[in-house]
Amino acid sequence: MSNEELAYDFSPLLKVYKDGRVERLRGTDIAPPSTDPKTGVQSKDVVISQEPAISSRLYIPKSTTTSSPQTKLPLLIYFHGGGFCIESSSSPVYHNYLNALVSEANVVAVSVDYRLAPEHPLPAAYEDSWAALKWVASHSDGNGSEDWLNSFADFQRVFFYGDSAGGNLAHNMALKVGCEGLAGVNLIGIVLVHPYFWGTEPVGEESTAPAAGPGGEFISALWRFTYPSTSGTDDPFFNPGKDSNLGELGCEKVLVCVAEKDVLKDRGWHYSETLKKSGWKGVVEVIEAIGEKHVFHLEDPTCDNAVALEKKIVAFLN
Question: Can you give the residue ranges of the Alpha/beta hydrolase fold-3 domain (predicted)?
């Protein structure tokens, strides 16, 4: 057997060789925490757990060092995307994005670094995200281990935000908050940008290309690869409409952002419709970026549609 024989090819995300080697094709670059020269946002990395290895990157805006007396700021928990198998909280694309968002929205942020498949298959990312949330919540009385959270975060104004697989995480963590509670935390809302959901039955325009062809097959295969013990694409983690507890979603408002040329677009709309019928008492809004593809706002953050999206998200957080 040659070292180059492939077991799985999920380009452009990753390849897995038959000898067990995993080659990530993107999302491996690292940006160190810093004080951002453009925005004055400060960041630092914090270890939440040694075993399993869970960490996060914390961000505070310039206002925390310039305004006196200090008023506490909304707390944003961010979950990065990458199909549960690539990227990290220290990836330059997410580091730069959060520097800008924290500055514009004037929030404290915690960007969660969860373990990735295939080395750590799902549900590891869900377990790690919940452990990170419990760690964050341990600061709600002002006596936690991390001073930035004790001093600057308002635990009565908490938001979850994620893109793609991170949107899936943000939803599932908000559902867990609704079903189990998270002591000391008042979750106001969640932002789901191009959320990574799927299902067996086509919705919207999915019965036609590209979702009906290679696009949909890729999504289904990637899900099974990252979660080998899943019940399938109708697993409630992946298809929220199949979750009998959906009406328990633990926040009062939801912003779903979809992109016209994203294969996941119809899932975002479907999520909104399903949520409205679930008995959930909150308000859900969907905005669609015309002419744009999946995570366009990360790839080209200065384009007009990305700037408009950012304004909408900043308003939602405030």
Answer: 76-297
Identify the pLDDT of residue 213.
Answer: 76
159 and 170 share one domain:
yes
Q: What is the pLDDT of residue 68?
A: 67
Based on the structure, what is the number of domains in the chain? 2
Q: What's the domain range around 14?
A: 1-30
**Each residue's pLDDT tens digit, 71-124:** 899 999 999 999 999 999 999 999 999 999 999 999 999 999 999 999 999 999
Q: Which residues are catalytic?
A: 164, 262, 294
- Which residues, other chains included, contact 201 with Cβ-Cβ below 8 Å and sequence gap of 6+? none
CATH number of the domain that residue 220 is part of: 3.40.50.1820
